[in-house]
Amino acid sequence: MSATILTRHLHSHGLDLVTDTHKYRKVVALRPLNKGSVVITSRPLCNPIIFPTHRTQHCETCFRTKGSGSATDYGASAAAGARSGGLELERCSVCKKRYYCDRDCFTVAWKGWHKWVCQDKDMEDLDYEMLKMIVISIERLRNGAFKESKQSGVATATAAAAASHGTGEQESLALTEYVFSTLMGHEAISDPAEIAKYREIATKIREQLIVAKFPFKSETSRGEPPSVAELMRYLCRFHCNNFSIHDSQLFTMAEGTFPVGALFNHSCRPNAIVMYEGQTQVVRTLEDIAVGQEVCTSYVDNGVQRAERRQLLRGKYYFDCLCPRCGGEGSGITTEKTGFRILDDLIEGDQDGEDGKKVDGEWLTKQFETIILPGARSLQAAGPSLQPPTMINRGSFTSYIIHSLVPLIQTGVTEQEYTERLFEIYNALRTTPHCTPKPFTTTVMTNATSFFNTSLEHQSWALASKIGTFILALYLMIYPRHHPLMGLHCFTLAKCLWNDVDGGMTSVRLSHEILKLSHNILTVSHGRTGQNGSLVKEVEEFMRTVETELGS
Ligand SMILES: [Zn+2]
Ligand SMILES: [Zn+2]
Ligand SMILES: [Zn+2]
């Protein structure tokens, strides 16, 4: 296995890996990539680890969710989903800690990895378990124990996802292992305390595998497990490159190593997104990407402030971000740098009530009651240059952003036109006087989000519609226009508007507009096939209900 095989694999997906003075290496497009397309699918090096809190909810082998419907949702082959009442899970009768949807999935897990970790007392430690899984996986792969066609579970799900999405070559297990060996581990600059902990884990696991007589029979190992130093390198690489696996609602449920997916660099304004179909990682484009342009995903939430992003990226991945938003050396086009750098100045700041008033539910309710929901009809027409309000408060901010940007998403203008409009808005928000507290900081967003959730719990639809619309304005300002978070939020908001009976037909019409927006975004971020695609179908189904009510 060599670099040539990796190059061939990436080329078959229209990608290239090139060296970069600032970033070590980067993935660039070899051919134009349309927004909403699958760039590549990536497989896990070893079975990902489900968070202890989520174990009872997912099959450890195929990741299908308890109570889920059709088995085809995940592209896996199992009849269990067809049972009435949805998918049922059974736990391992020895450890009583891991759950499986059927005997096939259990057998794959048991033979593949579970029998080596089933009785471990340290199994609750993610590092510990992950390292053991990596060692077992690599050894099994080297001595040919994995038969691509016969391994069900991971491989079946991967093949299904690849068949339904990818256009290029399918990733071989040997390639996965090779790419893992090339990933940066940053051992030299890691925290000494962390390194000491890794050494302890590595030593313990090495001894355990010897005692358990794990068959190290490949040519590389010759009966011996990898050295402690090698095991520590595995852990370092895992830490700098691991992914949190989430479902179609973006709720994280597991952690895994996807070496090919880890080749993509980070940007705080990403043009691609990482999604999952079962255990297969799917990288999708959020916008059209031109030949030669770098394809970037995001390692952190784009909705957190500059200092926090910097801390997260430095602490976990050991780099300072050079993206257009963070604007370091080599970040590219100057105008872009100016525009997105304003964004971070805008969203910084704390939230205090006016005149030092305490921010409680009552105060917030009053604040949001002043918001006037945008008229659905005016959302359909894009005003070329909407005048910013003379004074920016929550209400005028919401109306200004929604009226300026929603029509542009609906008409599908180019990324450049959209970005130009966005920079115009940033400049207006910067220069126009605003009330205190500043209505568009991330702290306000966090508060508004928890208030939104409370109003949903209480089924206060009118209030939820207003807060939800305000949050949408904040998302439009901060996130890329086809970001899945925004699509999901629009779906919830559309339901609030539809449920708000006091809003009458105006509310129904607005719900329809927001649903169209949700559909537009989710088609790009989630696609129309597989587990993620079923969400788009759900939106369509709801859209038909709303349309029936509108009589169209
Ligand atoms: Zn299963
Ligand atoms: Zn067990
Ligand atoms: Zn950045």
TrEMBL record:
Q: Which GO terms describe its molecular function?
A: zinc ion binding
Which superkingdom, per the lineage? Eukaryota
Alphabetically list the UniProt keywords.
Metal-binding, Zinc, Zinc-finger
Gene Ontology cellular component annotations, sorted alphabetically: nucleus
Per UniProt, residues of the SET domain are 85-300
InterPro entries cross-referenced by the UniProt entry: H3K4_H4K5_MeTrfase (IPR050869), SET_dom (IPR001214), SET_dom_sf (IPR046341), TPR-like_helical_dom_sf (IPR011990), Znf_MYND (IPR002893)
Q: Which residues form the MYND-type domain?
A: 59-118
Q: Which PANTHER family does this entry report, sorted A to Z?
A: EG:BACR7C10.4 PROTEIN, HISTONE-LYSINE N-METHYLTRANSFERASE SMYD
The identity of this protein, by name, is SET domain-containing protein
Organism for this UniProt entry: Linnemannia gamsii
Lineage start:
Eukaryota, Fungi, Fungi incertae sedis, Mucoromycota, Mortierellomycotina
